[in-house]
Amino acid sequence: MIGKLNHVAIVVPDLEAGTAVYRDTLGAKVSAPQDVPEHGVTTVFVELPNTKIELLHPLGSGSPIAKFLENNPSGGIHHVCYEVEDIEVAASRMEAQGARALGGIKIGAHNKPVLFLHPKDFCGTLVELEQA
């Protein structure tokens, strides 16, 4: 059912410094920061030949990422995102298998439908499904 790995999301305490590590130290192509108010984050995408890294930073104190940073002040891996052909079909299948969705289907940072799945149902990893 899942397709290719779309991205790995990493929460960073300093978005400018995190961007500099990937751009300047590792020589990667990085996007400009993009505020995504509906998810409470600012994102930067690091383009790799086979996938992307999404750097996440809280957009305001009410951001769900702010709590992650409280518990992990240095930042860290937040979630992995896999592509699916049809998000509705994927959501139905996940529900039928007993997997718990977090918050239902929303529009993600790529302006495509996404669904987050509870880490307790996926080996301790927060999983995001994105319609390809």
How would you describe the overall organization of this protein?
With 132 residues, the protein is α+β, with helices and mostly antiparallel strands. The chain has one domain: 2,3-Dihydroxybiphenyl 1,2-Dioxygenase, domain 1 (Roll). It has 3 helices and 9 strands, in the order E-H-E-E-E-E-H-E-H-E-E-E. Strands 1, 2, 3, 4, 5, 6, 7, 8 and 9 form a 9-stranded mixed β-sheet that branches. Strand 4 and strand 5 (52-58) form a beta hairpin. The longest helix has 11 residues, at 15-25. The protein is globular. The mean pLDDT is 96.
Summarize the topology.
Elements: E1 5-11, H1 15-25, E2 29-30, E3 34-36, E4 41-47, E5 52-58, H2 64-71, E6 76-84, H3 87-96, E7 101-107, E8 113-117, E9 127-131
Parallel strand pairs: 1-5, 6-9
Antiparallel strand pairs: 1-6, 2-4, 3-4, 4-5, 7-8, 8-9
Features:
single chain, 132 residues, alpha+beta, 2,3-Dihydroxybiphenyl 1,2-Dioxygenase, domain 1, nine-stranded mixed β-sheet, 3 helices, 9 strands, 22% helix, 39% strand
